Structure formats: structure tokens, C-alpha cells
Amino acid sequence: VDEAAAAAAANGKDLARVLDLKRFEPVLTFHFRAGTFSVSKIKKNCLMNIWFWPLTQWRLPLKCTDAKLSDPNPGLRVLCDVVAGNYRRCGDIEKCSGDRLVPYQPHVSKVSIQMPDNMNEIYGTMVYRLKFMNFFVPEGGFFPRRFQAQIRKEDGSKPYYILSTGKYVSMTPAPTSILARLLYDGTESLPFEGNPTFMVYVKFVLPSDIRGLIRKPPAEYQRPASSVGIMAPEGFRVLGIFQAPSDLGRTKLTPEGDGAAALSTIE
Question: CA angle, 26 as apex, 23 and 27 as ends, to 5°?
């Protein structure tokens, strides 16, 4: 995986390489092809799996149907058609499902498809397309990344696993998934009341996991660290950023001897 490109995309430096899913009516399209020679065909009834990363973010429908079929409760809709290849057809998908990777958990991040029985074999320069529709995107969003896919023979033998290429896929988090607030110790007047300078402590919960810096990673796992930017309101200037005191957030007493209500439930 091109980690440097992913980092540039995440920082907004190369947005042309990122597909940002739309929160309403999202569509994901995958182009796929087989090997160069006819001995490495993708044949009818082959088994395909696609993993939607991050695995703990997605809650895809368990039910999955061909988009060409009429169904009042279709679940995940999948359409398979031909991009490159004369007189070819992908056919009608009859076996498809969303799968839980961990039983009894809400996360559904894997799609299993059996290629159509009436599909023409694909190899060489032929390209087919799978289009996924009618699914919910993760509320927390996620940073630009690749998806994974695997193709196997009908009996489950000869699996071939690959990362997606082309654009990185990302999702902007919903506003309601970002949690942040100012921490106030109750011993001084609130900021923004005529003071030229003041200290503000911010506690926030990110909607998506970020990775820390690995100082001595193996050569094959070199990657940049994630970073977080906080923009000051218009008209204000940040004089410095400091580590919060270790006791910040613990219950303190006001001059009157009462517990600071604002912090009574913060640990």
C-alpha cells in the first residue's frame, strides 16, 4: 500500500486520489479482471469476498440482492456488468450476503458473492464491474484507505487475495460523531470575559482511530505518524500548546467548599 500517498490524501494535498463517500445515496464501484492468460480465468460460480475497512466501522445489510431484481426489501443492492469485453455479460447475481466477522456483534463489514451461473468467463483485457448501492456509511467516518478482495474457485480452492488500486476511499465523519468540550476547574471565572490571555483545556473524542508514530518500525512498515490540528476562533491567536495537568478533570472544591459541578462526572 502506498502509505505516503495515503498520508498526502489525508492531509488534503492530493484529493484527486481520494473518493469521499457521500452520506446520502452512497455508491461504491469496483472494477475487476482476471489473469492475462486463459488458464487464470474467473469462471462462473467462483466465490468472491470483499472486506470493507475499517472492519469495526461498517454495518452493511445482511441481505444482498441483484439490483436488476424487484424486491420490496432489497438490503444491499449489487449490480454486475461489463466495462471492457465484446459480447460478454456478467449475468444475474443469485447468491450474495453481508457477513459478520465476529458472531453476535453489530459490525457487518464483509460481502460474499457467488459469481453468476450465466456469467461469461473473464481473462486477459476483459474488465467487469461490481456496483454496491443502498447501504449505510459509517457515522464516525474513516481516513483514506484501501479495500481488500479475494476470489476462489467454486469449491473454495485456489484463493487469490488482493488490495484495491485506484482511488483511496474515505468518509467524512458525521457532525454528531465528534465529541469535544472545554474543561473548567470551577476556581476561576470563565474565559472570554475580558482577559487578554487565558488557558483553555479541551477534551475531545475522535470519530475515527488514528495511528501513533512507530519510532523503529520494520522496513516494510515505514509510515508517517497521524496528526491533529486545532484551529483557533477568528480573532484569537494560539500562544502555545501544553500538556494538561495530571489532575485535570478531577473534582475540585470552589472557594465556598462546594464540589465543582462541571467536573463531578469527569474522570
Answer: 160
d(CA 229, CA 233) in angstroms, rounded, equals 13
224 contacts 3 by C-beta, under 8 angstroms:
yes
Where does residue 83 fall: left (phi above 0), alpha (psi -120 to 50 degrees), or beta otherwise? alpha
Residue 112: which of 178, 61, 173 has the closest Cα?
A: 61
Helices (H) and strands (E) in the chain, counts: 1, 14
Within 13 A of 26's CA, how many CA atoms are on the CB side? 17
pLDDT at 208: 64
Q: Give the confidence band of 1 by pLDDT, cuts at 50, 70, 90.
A: very low
| pLDDT higher than threshold 80 for residue 137 | yes
Residue 3 parent element (H or E): helix 3-10
* C-alpha to C-alpha distance for 115 and 127, rounded to whole angstroms: 14
How far is Cα 228 from Cα 17, in angstroms, rounded to an integer? 21
Judge if pTM exceeds 0.85: no
